[in-house]
Design a protein that fits this description.
Layout: E1 2-6, E2 12-16, E3 19-23, E4 41-49, E5 54-60, E6 64-71, E7 73-80, E8 83-84, E9 88-91, E10 95-99, E11 104-110, E12 117-124, E13 134-138, E14 143-145, E15 153-159, E16 164-167, E17 170-179, E18 181-182, E19 191-192, E20 196-202, E21 205-208, E22 213-220
Antiparallel strand pairs: 1-20, 2-3, 3-4, 4-12, 5-11, 6-10, 6-12, 7-8, 7-9, 7-11, 10-13, 14-15, 15-22, 16-21, 17-20, 17-22, 18-19
Length: 222
């Protein structure tokens, strides 16, 4: 049993022209042998983009990639076996799941004219390699189960000031504050936007919002 509070202020930061990314786990030039993964999670990135900028086409294999758009709008394009799908606009509040499987090339660019874009993206190792690639967007979704990773679930929890929620009991829980703040509790001093709880084999915990708050809560069977 363990509780860790991962503060946004100690995340790894990557910067490029008109974009910034905060990494929860080792990524690229940011290597930390103590922070390589959390269960099936190998990447948890908080991306900030200016309009018209982002990530041009690049390739992935054997990853389940979950994207939550916090604000603005993102244009997603992908190609499988030289066949390009129509670009998809992913609005704020939407969840998207890209199963890279046997191989997919995709791009993610902030929609011009929609203002700055912020999105949180999580990469998970699938249970089985080489699956058929797929992509789906779930507008205004508040929960998502990842078929390629048994027992993996994401819940989007929105709280008003003073409202409470119970973080689930599971083998592993990763609860990220995407907006707002939580009040001081027995778990920690006030937890703010960009901070996260990481629980291993913990019982359920109740948290309370200090201001209007949004949580991205992952739970895992193992």
């Amino acid at each position: 049993m363990s509780v860790e509070i991962r503060r946004g202020t100690v995340r790894f930061v990557s910067r490029a022209a008109r974009r910034e990314t905060k990494h929860s786990f080792a990524f690229g030039e940011h290597y930390d042998p103590e922070r390589l993964s959390f269960g099936p999670v190998v990447c948890h990135d908080d991306h900030h983009l200016r309009g018209g900028t982002g990530f041009e086409a690049h390739r992935h294999t054997d990853l389940e990639i979950v994207t939550y758009v916090v604000s603005g709008a993102l244009e997603h394009s992908h190609t499988v076996d030289d066949t390009a799908a129509e670009p998809v606009r992913v609005e704020a509040g939407s969840l998207a799941l890209l199963s890279a499987g046997a191989g997919v090339s995709h791009s993610e660019v902030a929609v011009s004219g929609a203002g700055p874009v912020r999105f949180v993206q999580v990469w998970l190792r699938p249970d089985e390699p080489g699956a058929t690639p797929s992509y789906a967007v779930h507008p205004d979704a508040t929960s998502l189960e990842v078929p390629g990773v048994a027992g993996a679930r994401l819940d989007v929890v929105r709280l008003g000031t003073g409202e409470a929620t119970t973080l689930p009991e599971a083998a592993r829980v990763h609860a990220f504050v995407s907006r707002g703040a939580l009040v001081r509790s027995s778990l920690a001093e006030p937890v703010q936007a960009g901070d996260a709880f990481l629980f291993v084999d913990e019982p359920a915990h109740e948290v309370t919002a200090a201001v209007p708050t949004e949580l991205l809560v992952w739970s895992f069977r193992s």
